[in-house]
Write a structure and sequence with these properties.
Shape: globular
Number of helices: 5
Radius of gyration: 14 Å
Order of helices and strands: HHEEEHEHH
CATH class: Alpha Beta
Distance between the termini: 9 Å
Largest sheet: 4 strands, mixed
Strand order of the largest sheet: 1-2-3-4
Helix content: 40-55%
CATH topology: Endonuclease, Chain A
Length: 123
């Protein structure tokens, strides 16, 4: 049975491409030192619905978001909350880490991602 396709705005593709070509140091570290070698395939800067997810595993419908300083304002917190709710409404689970988590607690971040993948039900 095919997995349902999550629609997205085509207008997001150029922005996603641009974000892939200029990752943050934390995104670069997580991608090159962990996610790209996992057996579960992840995409970087993936348009989903009306958002761009930092990392997305379609098999497990799992989004990984890395939050930098811009995410700590009240406005950004509200936006992140509505974004998470919108993605969860289409069946996507969202887990978040700060950039500092990735830099200072890399092993713990990797363990948390593996646990999230283990806890995900196979479609």
């Amino acid at each position: 049975m095919p997995r349902p396709f999550i629609d997205y705005r085509r207008s997001l593709k150029p922005r996603a491409r641009s974000l892939r070509s200029d990752p943050t140091p934390a995104e670069r570290k997580l991608w090159y030192e962990f996610l790209r070698t996992l057996p579960q395939k992840f995409s970087r800067q993936k348009p989903l619905d009306r958002y761009i997810a930092d990392f997305y595993c379609s098999k497990h419908k799992l989004v990984i978001e890395l939050d930098g300083d811009s995410h700590y304002t009240d406005r950004a917190q509200r936006y992140d909350g509505s974004r998470t709710a919108a993605l969860e409404a289409v069946g996507v689970r969202v887990i978040r880490f700060t950039n500092m988590d990735v830099v200072q607690n890399f092993e713990a971040v990797c363990v948390a991602i593996l646990r999230a993948l283990e806890g995900a039900s196979d479609p």
